[in-house]
Write a structure and sequence with these properties.
Chain A: It holds the Pfam family BPD_transp_2. The complex is a heterotrimer of chains A (317), B (290) and C (407). Chain B has 290 residues and is mainly alpha-helical. Chain B has ten helices and two strands, in the order ααααββαααααα. Chain B has a two-stranded antiparallel ribbon. The relative contact order of chain B is 0.22. Chain C folds into two domains: 191 residues, Response regulator (Rossmann fold, 3-Layer(aba) Sandwich); 152 residues, 3-Layer(aba) Sandwich (Rossmann fold), CATH 3.40.50. Chain C has 13 helices and 16 strands. Chain C is of the alpha/beta class and 407 residues long. The chains are: A mainly alpha (317), B mainly alpha (290), C alpha/beta (407).
Chain lengths: 317, 290, 407
Amino acid sequence: MKSAFVWVALVLVLAALAAAPFFMQAYGLGLLIGLMGYVTLASAWALFSGRTGYISLATVAFFGIGAYMVAAFNEVLPYPLVLVVAALAGLALALVVGLSTLRLAGVYFVIFTFGLAELVRQLVTWYEINVTGTLGRYIFMSLGPEHIYWQLLALAAATLFITWRIDRSRLGLALRVIADDEVVAAHLGINLARTKLALFALSSVIITLVGAVQAPRWTYIEPAIAFNPTVSFLTLVMALLGGASRLWGPVLGAVPLFLLFEWLSANFPNHYSILLGLLFIAIVFAVPKGIVALVETRFRTNERAFRPVAMEAEGKP
Amino acid sequence: MLVTTIINGLVLGGTYALVAMGLTIQYGIARIMNLAYGETIIAAAFLAFVLNGALGIAPLPSLLIAAPAGFALSYVIYGLMLRPLVRRSGGGAGLEVNSILATFGLLFVIQGIMLVLFGGDYISYSYMNFGVDVLGASVAANRLLALVLAVVLGGGLYLLLTRTLWGTALRAVAVAPQSAPLVGIDANRAARFAFALGGALATCGGVVISMYQTFTASSGVIFTMKALIVVILGGVGNLAGALSAGLLLGLVETLVATYVSPGLTLAAVYHIFLGVLLWRPSGLFGKARR
Amino acid sequence: MTATSRRAILRTLGISVCMFAVAAAAPAVSQERTSVKIGYAISKTGPNAGGAGITTLPNYELWVKEVNEAGGLELPDGSRLPIEVVEYDDRSSAEEVVRAIERLATQDEVDFILPPWGTGFNLAVAPLFDRFGYPQLAVSSVTDKAPEFVQRWKRSFWMLGGGSDYTDALAGLLKKTNDEGKINNKVAMISVADGFGIDLVTAARPSFSEAELEVVYDVTYPAGTTDFTSMINEAAGSGADTFVAFSYPPETFAITQQAQVAKFNPKVLYLGVGTGFPNYGADLGPNAEGVMSLGGIDPNNQANTAYRKRHEEVTGRAPDFWGSVVTFASLQMLQEAVKRRGLDREAVSDELSNGTFETVLGEVKLEDNQLRKLWFGGQWQNGNFVAVAPVDREGVSQAIMPKASWQ
């Protein structure tokens, strides 16, 4: 009964969000696009990093590849096919990277992924200059912002649904073990490499698609625009703020942070950096385990008697 | 030609080494992945620029102001911001994520303050910009100074760390922060000192670099990135490693620029970096630790 | 996660979505007009802040201050309305700049929007200016595709020419000097692997070959390169009398310094963005003499001289010698168009296309929505960055070639 209610509520929210463009001006819609973009990015990021403990800074490498694929193929192929090509490119890169790097542990993985994003940017730049002879590419597509928004919304919903399925599956259990202790996981007969690789590929393909879907909004693409490292950092911070190991964590991190950035940059354009920095520091001190954990702790104190046992299992980061 | 290229490479590498040494100490000994490291460098560069322009203090003497200032500032930052995080994590893995997030915030704060104070303009001035003949190659004196300073500071600190009791204590904290107190080492004090020392090194680097490199309030990230690459290549916490790795990177860039294509210098650097990470995650000169 | 907390979260989510929808749909309150709202989004932080902070932002501030001190923007009926500024920081991100323009147009409902800094960002926002019906006076974007863009976006105006304008001008000067026997016909050229560098170097190759100049060294380096010794050595060894670098400010300064150290003395030294910054000349002193670049000014143009003085007084620093004065001129055009046609954006766009304006650049009339009367080449002479091309335009100075050796 309860779960049926949740499903109905979810469908209603989704429908309301899908209908939003009909009631909004361009700015409201733009805000929703940015919001949905980061919700998807943070959720996709958390799908891998939040569940395996591998912190990735390669987000923008995939995001940028997606944008570039659209720029490269938007005049030759029909749009759905362009998205397929972008997804395949993201998948290929993810497999190459995944196969070679997932044995790296801890901070080495963080730094590797950061270097990877820069390497991809350098290689794309070099390719453009030496092979195509120009740097900027144009995307002239008659794709209205509402279409971009609906695609992102669908992508966000799909990401959350996939995450939910995975969390409930055997794979999800395996992942929780991996995040806890890789040695134990290996002893339990979990195929570490394949599990991690599959998840990394899935997460990367979604991120690639976000880049591909958003690119037509910029009209003009060059490496500095498509591979803006801020994307990686913001995604990470949003997911960590919300709670990267939880289904709704990244959403709860992305929504308030995104709106806050928007508010700060509009009201304090000259002191944006300072306020943003102070806020980050405050978050680390005040919400160390993420918003979801904070909300749960409050419930735990208020509704101790009603707390079902199931939470214990999911309570582990 | 080859000799000239190699000398130029070493000089460029001197800058990289100089930039990286503070970070390797902060990260290796204090265990803080300081993303605001580059901002410390830029802040020092601004300091040198202002001292030079407004008060007429040449960059070299202003090192004597910048280094203690960097030390003090980093000391305070560690005490106020990072120490509580260290205490909270209790030496666990949480510290890495928390310190990345907190110093990421710090990065914005310092950058924002510099933007308010100086605006977003490109800053450059020249000092000691004359050629010095080294084995037939004409090398900029200010860049040569960076190399010399890197070798002197790096070598000196390396000797201090390996040959003195005090250095051994610091290294002990780096290797086993939990066990260090057992042998009477105040791990907190050592880490705080190491972090501040790293800050002082960063400011020295910033002052020297400002003599020949154009910077803006937003360009700190570039230095953090470069430093990070050198630190990882050289092995975290390894001063001699950072020095060698910095020189190596300089050589690679110049050789690639001369014999392959200047367009591929950065790509080559990242290739080597990623290759080393895969092949020897503890760095070219580091001992396997994990 | 429990059903309880999930429901709580959903509730919050639902409420915020609703609030959001209400906020966005709330109609703008109409009232008696007391000001003219002018909005812009500009890179105050991030990698673009350096360029925006020199060429664009100070001029916006200067113009608003001057207009408001004069009592505001004058309308056709002679009344004046003060300017109210709405400004956003686009944080050097394409997505942010797009959203900021949407916000200015539909949320703040500003009367006019001033363009962002940079070729890429001006292109990113061009479809929005077009869709919302705002004229776009794009200054800080050098593009050969301007005629095409004007076709696509009728209200877009391109004020800084295209890459081939600059390289044709340079090639012309070099050819002339070569014909006079002062330099050989060989050119060594490097370029930054970024939009600007690539646009210019792609334009330069045909320009040079048409002028029968031989390019003997032609490489591209990644943005952020700090060491140019190997490139300078190669160029020095190539036997070319002309060294051209389509570079960005940090590299322009670095190349200058390293050329001095290497005692590299090409007879013609042409560098990219940054050469026209006032502190370039101030730092180098006599060594700046003879260095060439894009842009330049006519030192005898009184209006421009007065503008430079005001700029320095108000913003605390001198304007650059290339885009700054054009930026300010574009704002004067907007001001004059409003005076003639009022706040109707359609009429103002029409006026900008067809009108003739008196500005700090002198008399300006756009051709096919593009400013074509520009200085395409300049050179440091006696502490001033004077225009040396096009050679047939009034107010041009004679280029000094070959350049003197470093002191």
